[in-house]
Amino acid sequence: MKYLILLLSLQLHLSTAFVVPAVERGATAEISGLATTTFDPAWRVALNFGKSTINPFGDFGASGARLPVVIPCEFTDSGLAMPRYDTVSYTDITGGIVKPVQGGSWKISNNGKKSDAMSQNLQMTLTFPEELRKGDVIIPAQSTVSLEGLVYSQEVLKKLDEAFSNARSDEWKAEETLEEVYKERDGPKKWNPKTQAWERPTMDVPLTDLFQKHWTVFSKKQETRRRNAARPRSSDLSKQSGPFPGYEDRVYFGQQGIIRIDNNVVGTWSAEPMNDVPATYFGTR
């Protein structure tokens, strides 16, 4: 019996000897009268390294292999992007791989694109001290990756929806005005008691006015399309909104952000807020 217990203890020791636990970063301490412990706004950032159609380079990811890495990050008011754990993990044909990760910085800037004038650009950095490799997807050691994407506040999304609704309403009104002219011209004959005959109403709208009404309808349609194009689709946004430094209301992250090393695009990324709900592999629901 003694040997059986010894054998079981040895087996348990060997099964856990090669597991490298991730170390969670401590909470941020804030002092306001009494010391309290809080966490900064946190998002689960999903990086998907692989060949990009935007700016492919060399043989990077030519096989179509992907290297997904998920990093829970906190964003501080001072502009730091801090992973909650000091390691990341992924799998390849040899099994599980654990690599260190280091935090970086983040910043928000205005988007210069007219179609997205109300969105803002988010740029953040992370560093991988050791090489990440899966097939021909290779992130060299000491690589600092730059993540670029869009951020929409709930207030901005509401304004975009209102602008679209107003433009569509103006378009409908312009169409109704034009339809009234043609209804009058093409309407049924009316009895004229003076001439004692059925007569079709004469169209007293000048040709220039008719052309102007057509032009108004056209321009209103164009404005509606422009306003609609400025609104992100639900599939273009994170599934949930979450807090972020510098915003009074909650924000949505744009999907399919770009990952760069120097000027080379090495993948895409997305993020979901850590709202204390069950997580899927690439985010939360």
Account of the protein in words:
By secondary structure, this protein is α+β, with helices and mostly antiparallel strands. The protein has 2 domains: 37-153 and 234-284; 157-230. It is built from 3 helices and 19 strands. The protein has helices at 2-16, 154-186, 207-230; strands at 28-32, 34-38, 42-50, 66-75, 80-83, 87-92, 95-100, 104-110, 120-128, 132-134, 137-139, 143-153, 190-192, 197-199, 251-253, 257-261, 264-273, 279-280, 283-284. The strands form 6 sheets. An 8-stranded antiparallel β-barrel has the order 3-4-5-8-9-12-16-17. The longest helix is centred in the middle third of the chain and has 33 residues, at 154-186. It is elongated. The two termini are 50 Å apart.
Low-confidence stretches: 1-8, 10-21, 26-38, 280-285
Number of domains: 2
- Report the count of strand segments: 19
Reading side by side through the largest sheet, how are the strands ordered?
Answer: 3-4-5-8-9-12-16-17
Helical residue percent?
A: 25-40%
User: Structural class, please?
Assistant: alpha+beta
- SSE sequence, one letter per element: HEEEEEEEEEEEEHEEHEEEEE
Please state the CA-atom Rg, rounded to the nearest Å. Answer: 30 Å
* Mean pLDDT, all residues: 81
Euclidean distance between termini CA atoms? 50 Å
Taken from the alpha-carbon principal axes, the silhouette is elongated
Strand fraction: 35-45%
- How many helices? The count is 3
Quick one: biggest sheet? 8 strands, antiparallel, barrel
Keywords: Signal
